[in-house]
Structures are given as structure tokens and as C-alpha cells.
Amino acid sequence: MTTKIILDCDPGHDDAIAMLLAQGNPEIDLLAVTTVAGNQTLDKVTRNALAVADIAGMTEVPVAAGCDRPLVRAPRVAPDIHGESGMDGPQLPPSVREVDGRHAVDLIIETIMAEPVGSVTLVPTGALTNIALAVRREPRIADRVREVVLMGGALHRGNWSATSEFNIIVDPESAHIVFNADWPVTMVGLDATHQALATPEVIERITAIGNGPSRFVVELLEFFAKAYRESQHFASPPVHDPVAVARVIDRSIVRTVGVPLDVELGNGLTVGMTVADLRAPADDASRTHAAVDLDQERFWGLIVDALERLDDRLLTPEE
Ligand code: PIR
Ligand code: CA
């Protein structure tokens, strides 16, 4: 059984790897890639998404651009981590692909409404602006989506402020809408993604694959490692976004707890914090779940497997 997903992203080094995992894994049916301003401006992340779509051989997958700024707050980008292009490191030729003519919000709604109820999983790996607008514009998608499995938030610490993670703090109002809409939400936050470290051993394993997609990933990881060393005091960089995709492929790779979750919208110290109410016992039937642990060995196994398969696909001539 494959799972249909829409990947809403802001590539972004780790978003690019999430795209490759989604395209290369046989259990994922990638219906669309949509982009949102975050790591860099909308134009830049959309250009990057198209380039990654080329590398992944996504001939059938539409790539549509969405919102170019958060709902309420001023836009902000992360050049210290992702560079001026949003995906610094690899030298990429401009994509020959065209961006889809539809706005990402429309494409998300159309896609969900056209698929059977309960069949589409939304996987946002950037700010939640497109997803929030989609559920406001067409509230019926809340009942139709199987679940929202998002990279964002954290239970114990932030990365953009002491308490808050980048994807949430960039557009907390959108995050608030998404966390409080009546659909299941799994928050794959820093508690899990900070375990997805691209150590030298991991980079060696990916290098050993020796195909085009793997060389691209190694170049991404080399830039990302340097940025994370210099600006975040990390010995190896955490590869956040593919952890959300991995959770969709195999739930048991990411351990979660079922707890109430909400988003702080005040303008004080904790703006953009994802607040878990840990007073009640964890409940598997909770509408909201937070990731707490990652099976690192199986996670990297999925990445390696997907990169190997992508090469096969590129070698298969199209009829
Ligand atoms: C990663 C990101 C932003 C800032 C830093 N320091 C690191 C991006 C990633 O693409 C990921 O989706 C999320 N935001 C992690 O906070
Ligand atoms: Ca991202």
C-alpha cells in the first residue's frame, strides 16, 4: 500500500533531501510539491524545488509556488544556514521544467478534493502559510486529509530562539491554524530531527552510492555541515525534513507521544513556541502527537535506499 502525499516545502538543503526520499521511496506516491517562503524568498525556493525535481526525475509531479510571506508577520529568511540561494553548495544548471500555473493553495485543495477521503497525507517542511490558507479557503479538506505530518516545533528547546523552531516562529499564526484545525497532526520537531545527524560515517555511506543524486546530496551536506558548525555549534548537521517523510513511510521509525499541542502567539520571549500539555497521561487517541525519538539506523537506511533507487529510475528510458 502506497501513501499519497503532498510535500509543501522551502528548499532548503534538508527539504531537497526530503524531496529525494519521497520520490525515491516506493511506498510514497508523491502527488505534488508546493513551495512557500521560509529558508529563502519564494522565487529562490521555487527555483531550487524545480532543480531538485530534475535531479529526482519527477517528470509527473507538479511543482507549484505558494505564499511569498507569512500571514501576519514580516518575512524572514535563513541565509546563515542555507546560503544566499537557499540551497548553496551544489552548482546546478537552471531547471528546464516549468512551474505549475496554479497557486500552491489551489493545487493543494484541488488535489485533496479529487482524491478519496482519507487518502492524502500533507507533509509540510516549511512555514505553514500555504496549509493554513488551504484549510481556511476549503474547510472540507480537514475531514479529507488522512493526517498532517509536519517538520516543525519542539518540546524542549528551539533553534531560532530559546524556545522556538524556525518553521513555526516564521509564521506562528499559520501554525496556530494548522495545529488547531480538526485533523490529525503529527509534529516532527527538533526532539527527533536533532537525532538525524549527518555524521562523517553517514556522508561516507552516501558517497559510496556513487550516482548523481548521491553526489548532489553529499554536496548539500558539506555546505550544511559547515553552516551548522559555524552558526549553531553542531559537530554534524541535523537533516530535519526527511524525518517527516520517513515517519509517513514507516511510523515506527519516529516514536511519538499523543499530547495536546498548541502554538504561542504572544509577542514575548516564547513567541512561536509549540506548547505540549504534559499534565495528562499520553494518549494514543490524541488528535495531536509529538515526535520524541528517532531510529537513526533505519532512517539513514531509507535515505540510502531511496538514493540508490533514484538512479535506477534515471537510467530507465521513458516511453
Ligand atoms: C534549518 C531550517 C531553518 C533554520 C535552521 N537553523 C535550520 C529549516 C529546515 O529546512 C527545516 O525545515 C526547519 N527549518 C528546521 O528548523
Ligand atoms: Ca524546510
In words, what does this structure look like?
The chain has 319 residues and is α/β, with parallel strands linked by helices. Helix 1 links the parallel strand 1 and strand 2. Helix 1 runs antiparallel to helix 11, helix 4 packs across helix 5 and helix 10 packs antiparallel against helix 11. The longest helix has 21 residues. The model has no long low-confidence stretch (mean pLDDT 96). The site of calcium ion has 9 residues, from helix 1.
Nutshell version of this structure?
The chain is an alpha/beta fold and 319 residues long.
What is the strand and helix layout of this fold?
Blueprint: E1 3-9, H1 13-24, E2 28-35, H2 42-55, E3 63-65, H3 79-82, H4 104-114, E4 120-124, H5 129-137, H6 141-144, E5 145-151, H7 166-170, H8 172-180, E6 185-188, H9 190-193, H10 200-209, H11 212-232, H12 242-249, E7 254-258, E8 261-263, E9 274-276, E10 288-294, H13 296-315
Helix pairs in contact: 1-11, 1-12, 1-13, 4-5, 5-8, 10-11, 10-13
The protein binds 2-(4-amino-phenyl)-5-hydroxymethyl-pyrrolidine-3,4-diol and calcium ion.
Largest sheet: 8 strands, mixed
Total number of beta strands: 10
Poorly predicted runs: none
What is the architecture at the second tier of CATH? Alpha-Beta Complex
In percent, how helical is the residue content? 40-55%
Structural class: alpha/beta
Bound molecules: 2-(4-amino-phenyl)-5-hydroxymethyl-pyrrolidine-3,4-diol, calcium ion
Beta-strand residue fraction: 15-25%
Examine the coordinates and then state which fold CATH places here, giving the name of the CATH topology. Inosine-uridine Nucleoside N-ribohydrolase, Chain A
